[in-house]
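Database export, one record per block. Field names are fixed; values are copied verbatim from the stored entry.
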Amino acid sequence: MQEREVPIAIAQVQYSLMTARNNEILDSCDDAGCRLISYSPLCLGLLSCKYDLDNLPRAGNPRRQLFRELLPGAQPLLGTLKAVAKEVNKTPSQVAINWAICKGTVPIPGARNLVQAEENLGAVGWSLSNAAVEELDVASAGVQKKMIENIFSVK
């Protein structure tokens, strides 16, 4: 891009409390002077806290095996996410999306229906405290197995 003198304006990458290298990604965007668009800020729904090992996505859904692998190591993070959500009177999904906003990204969460879309909208118009962001950062850093990186991402 530099060879052609075309500035990079945005970078769209997978970014959530469950992804690795979050600080590295933000620093790279800052260095390039571009804005980060974070897709999958709910980690395919795992950060909604509606799934556990006894309630996985239905058989045949590829997320079923992925969640089976990720959920055990994510329990401390999910517990922190639920506690912060209760403290700010929001849902875990709203807190996870707002965390991404507080990190300076533009999250683009998915929604399968109107209820989820409306819930996602509840993530804007307010901000987590710095202490809550830090608490979530610490919990995120402690996740034993992070979300697999998108096969189209490059290091």
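Remark 1: The mean pLDDT is 92.
Remark 2: The first strand starts at residue 10 and ends at 14.
End of record.
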